[in-house]
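Reagents: none. Just compute today. DUF4383 domain-containing protein.
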Amino acid sequence: MSAANPAASAATRTPVQLASTVVGAVFLLVGIAGFIPGLTTNYDTMTFAGHHSEALLLGVFNVSILHNIVHLAFGAAGVALARTVRGAYLFLVGGGVVYLLLWLYGLIIDHDSSANFVPFNAADNWLHLVLAIGMVGLGLLLGRSSLPRRV
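Predicted 3D structure written out:
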């Protein structure tokens, strides 16, 4: 099996594909963890969406049902897109840009307003910046050497 084959084994995956798989798997785990009482404090206050949810993943990161679903969907996308080099690259770089925009959005909005529908808190905002830098960095660092060169 070759790396170009979507059914390629893990042994033939490129570094960018492995990075996309790992990042996607972490998002899946975070999405699941957000639904586990104990890992999520104030679990009984979790709402579907909105800034009224006081549920905190690991006692730090504000979560809601919607927030957890977004993590699960993002994780599934990362794992699915890791099947190809281009997909993995696009997930990491594109996803990193999305997280950069989420960081900016979280800085701009009033956390006590309806604009905070996911919801975010200060810890989420700074984690979004770290994710943006990490994902874009991984995508650019690992993806450029793996993508076919255009003439």
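The two ends are 26 Å apart (CA to CA).
Action item: order primers for follow-up constructs.
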